[in-house]
Amino acid sequence: QVQLVESGGGLVQPGGSLRLSCAASGFTFSSYVMRWYRQAPGKERELVAIIFSTANTNYADSVKGRFTISRDNAKNTVFLQMNSLKPEDTAVYYCNAVLPTNWGRKNAGYWGQGTQVTVSS
User: Fold this and answer.
1) Does position 107 have pLDDT exceeding 90, yes or no?
2) pLDDT number for residue 16
3) C or N terminus of the chain, fewer CB within 10 Å?
4) 66-75: long-range contacts (C-beta < 8 A, 24 or more apart)?
5) pLDDT band at 103 (very low <50, low <70, confident <90, very high)
6) What is the pLDDT at residue 54?
C-alpha cells in the first residue's frame, strides 16, 4: 500500500523555522519526483518546491531563498526546511510523489494527508 506521511508541522512565530518530513512507502521512492504543495484556507493548492531524481530543485518565487527541499533515498524521506517564516506561509502542507514524466502536471501522483503549519505571533 502506498503511503506518504507528513510530520513536523506546528505553530511558529514569524521569522522562525520548521522542518517538515515526508516518509514514503509502497513504491520505488528513488524513481519518483517529490513535490511539496500547500493550501491555505479559501485558496487553491499551490506548488512550493520540487526535487528531481537527480536532486536538482525548483522553488516557488514566494519561498525562494527561504525554503530548502531535500531527499534521503536510503530513508525514503523527503524534507522541507522552512526558514524566515512569514504569516502568509500558514497553510496545510502536502507531500506529493509523481513519476518523472508527470512532474509538471498538477494534481498527479500520490498524496499525503497533510500537516498544518501556522505562522503567527
Assistant:
1) no
2) 98
3) N
4) 69/34, 69/36, 71/34, 73/29, 73/30, 75/23
5) confident
6) 87
- DSSP string covering 1-12: --EEEEE--EEE
Contact (Cβ atoms closer than 8 angstroms) between residue 79 and residue 21: yes
Contact 13, 121 (CB under 8 A): yes
The rounded distance, in Å, linking the Cα atoms of 14 and 11 is: 10
Which residue matches cell numbers 511539496?
A: 36
Instruction: Please name the residues in contact with 103: beta carbons below 8 A apart, sequence gap of 6 or more.
Output: 33, 35, 50, 52
Chain position carrying cell 516557488? 60
Q: Determine if residue 35 is left, alpha or beta; phi over 0 gives left, psi from -120 to 50 gives alpha, anything else beta.
A: beta
Which helix or strand (DSSP H or E) is residue 35 part of? Answer: strand 33-39
Which is it for the CA torsion 108, 113, 115, 116, positive or negative? positive
Q: Each residue of 48-100: pLDDT tens digit?
A: 999 998 889 999 999 999 999 999 999 999 999 999 999 999 999 999 999 99
